């Protein structure tokens, strides 16, 4: 597939926003359950929820650039019974609204923070599932059609949000920093495991379709002589990344390094020296790594329609 | 239940592109809106087509065969492109099984094109809406057209009659008979999409000549000069041989 920057930004930005929200609510819940977690003041939660809101809002804005007819976007909530995209379109604003309410209830010291937080957390998790299922439900895109796709969206989003929460806590709630950084490290390591699992799975995939089944001619040697176009078409633009295999491979190693290895080192160093700049750097590096990860996620998917365009694939 | 579809005979398709141009001409002039045509006379011409003809060479030289392969929406019985559409713009008609896009509802998110394994949906680069073959839904029921013209434009244009249009659920239709009797098959059956359009495979063409066809007077294989000159009054098989 040809990775679209609007979708890469949408999924990485909202993923970090959801992860941050889960981190905030998690710390509040841990305190409420008397799990020896300290509870910083309301301000920490207000600003944190606003940062999460800003991230998902930015993701929402980015998503509009993916649409050919953004003015009709409101129609996309219609088919929630069958379409995961439609479900995402409903859950994302609901999550943003709940995040806003969470910030407000903390700002006003209303006693509903835990309840709103629980709803927001459920919506954040549901949003991860919707986003992942948009890709995982396309069964003939074999690289995506796996539970690992959903797991990766969930784990990588949480890792990115927790890294952000660590950096944020280091600035404004130092008592939470150790908990956040250890969780961020744990999730980043888990993300390395689940993402590597999907890389290994995809490396061993056998495509179910072939040029033979695509045109129904069962001869081992078929060469394409004409693609039915001269200067390209939607099909040659949308479904090919137009990069070399070498470039693809270097993106893979880049994201493994930037999204997982470096952030873990920076998080550990930041926690040990209690240095906010190092933790913010960890978030920035990991975010860039996740951009590369998402680019690779799209580029690696090999659509069966490419069989009809042998010269480009 | 009716399921309208095309049956495409790869045995007679000569790759002339008549169906491609006829399709584009009808569908770009219709009420549904034009189909883009960018740089038509310059380098890298591109645009939207509902139907494209590709060419494949099968086998290795010199034992090769050329297969011209027309490709358009197959109007799947279980179309994966429909349930994924968030707006309901993509739908399959219950009455005749045609898969259509309601252009006014489409937001151009391209999700349906990702969900079609055959790569036959094209987002129009100017209208920014998803477009695809409609089986000429605006022709086949069009009472303003004479009865014999109420067929898809590609079917009418094909000079070799490689495209058969009909109801594949009616066992007595020409389309169903062709599928049954000439080994009609579906593309990528492995995904369970059940395409309604079928393709007829290529067949071996054998020439049979009887001995009397070689010696008789109107044998076209005879060298001109050696032609026997029968009397003008001698009865012959055709006028040309009687001179
Ligand atoms: S061929 Fe593609 S666009 Fe047409 S009905 Fe089947 S899946 Fe949908
Ligand atoms: S591009 Fe249009 S028809 Fe296709 S899924 Fe999106 S809204 Fe539906």
Automatic annotation (TrEMBL), chain A:
Keywords: Membrane, Transmembrane, Transmembrane helix
Membrane-spanning ranges: 42-68, 89-108, 114-138, 150-171, 177-200, 253-272, 278-297
GO annotation, cellular component aspect: dimethyl sulfoxide reductase complex; plasma membrane
Keyword hit for Flavoprotein: no
Name of a matching Pfam family: DmsC
Protein origin, superkingdom: Bacteria
Molecular function GO terms recorded: dimethyl sulfoxide reductase activity
Gene Ontology process terms (BP): anaerobic electron transport chain
Protein name, entry field: DMSO reductase anchor subunit, DmsC
Species in which this protein is naturally found: Methyloversatilis universalis (strain ATCC BAA-1314 / DSM 25237 / JCM 13912 / CCUG 52030 / FAM5)
Taxonomy of the source species: Bacteria, Pseudomonadati, Pseudomonadota, Betaproteobacteria, Nitrosomonadales
Automatic annotation (TrEMBL), chain B:
Keyword Iron-sulfur included in the entry's annotation: yes
Sequence segments annotated as region (Disordered): 219-243
Pfam families documented for this protein: Fer4_11
Superkingdom per UniProt: Bacteria
Keyword Iron set for record: yes
Record keywords: 4Fe-4S, Iron, Iron-sulfur, Metal-binding
InterPro entries cross-referenced by the UniProt entry: 4Fe4S_Fe-S-bd, 4Fe4S_Fe_S_CS, ET_IronSulfur_Cluster-Binding
Record-annotated 4Fe-4S ferredoxin-type domain positions: 4-34, 64-95, 97-126
GO molecular function: 4 iron, 4 sulfur cluster binding; metal ion binding
PANTHER family documented for this protein: PROTEIN NRFC, PROTEIN NRFC HOMOLOG
UniProt protein name: Iron-sulfur cluster ferredoxin
Species the sequence originates in: Methyloversatilis universalis (strain ATCC BAA-1314 / DSM 25237 / JCM 13912 / CCUG 52030 / FAM5)
